Amino acid sequence: MNLIGKRVLITNADVFMGPVLCQVFAAHGATVLESTDSLLHPDAPASLIAALGQIDILVVNLAVPAPSTAVTDVLDDEWSDIFAALVNPLPRLCRAVLPAMIARRSGKILVMGSASALRGMKRASTYSAARGAQLAYVQAVGVEMASHNIQVNAIAQNFVDNPTYFPSEVQANPKFQERIKREVPLGRLVGASEDAEFAAYLCSDNANCFVGQVFPVCGGWV
């Protein structure tokens, strides 16, 4: 997975999978551009891309605490806030980065998504819907960009070790440990580096055949 010479932008680099992605991509020789900018403003993604120059690989790493609201109690504010954080930045980032990739006939976009869009979960309607929108967008854009030699894919993960959704205090909880044994065939969390190494593979030239695909990384939960 030689990424030497590749300029990789990782968004929200301080949360979710950001820190380990930065470490792993750098270890494979990439020039990692770590962004912790808020991407909530409509102009923020374009401004970020314009300031950084050439981007060979875009890793869209977006995260927000998942609400656990009963579907009958979900209000418009919750719905709009979750979509503003998880969905709206994605097309804005792609609009900003794709024209140059198309001109070069080279580029990769990987979305760090969630398997909550692939399996029903109680009290997760808003979060699951937003994550599902990410994956549907990836599938459509992936097949559209394939003829330009640009690969757009997504990792749909759950039960992967990360500080945003599975902090140490959660992992230490006996009830959570029982849940892992009950729900995850692997019997443990997927390691952060296992997930990040797979992300690096998908962003390498070894994975040029994958277009618009969603890869579950969840220890068999899906």
Descriptive notes:
This protein is of the alpha/beta class. Helix content is 41%, strand content 15%. Strands 2-1-3-4-5-6 form a six-stranded parallel sheet, with helices on both faces. Strand 1, helix 1 and strand 2 (31-34) form a beta-alpha-beta unit. Helix 1 crosses helix 8 (192-202) and helix 3 runs parallel beside helix 5 (125-145). The chain is globular and about 50 Å long. The model has no long low-confidence stretch (mean pLDDT 97).
SSE layout:
Elements: E1 7-10, H1 18-27, E2 31-34, H2 44-52, E3 57-61, H3 76-86, H4 89-104, E4 107-114, H5 125-145, E5 150-157, H6 168-171, H7 174-183, H8 192-202, E6 214-217
Parallel strand pairs: 1-2, 1-3, 3-4, 4-5, 5-6
Helix pairs in contact: 1-8, 2-4, 3-5
Can you tag this structure with a few keywords?
six-stranded parallel beta sheet, alpha/beta
What's a concise summary of this model?
By secondary structure, this protein is an alpha/beta fold. Helices cover 41% and strands 15% of the residues.
Strand order of the biggest β-sheet: 2-1-3-4-5-6
Q: Helix tally?
A: 8
Give me the Rg, rounded: 17 Å
What is the number of beta strands?
Answer: 6
The 3D shape can be described as globular
Order of helices and strands: EHEHEHHEHEHHHE
Range of helix content: 40-55%
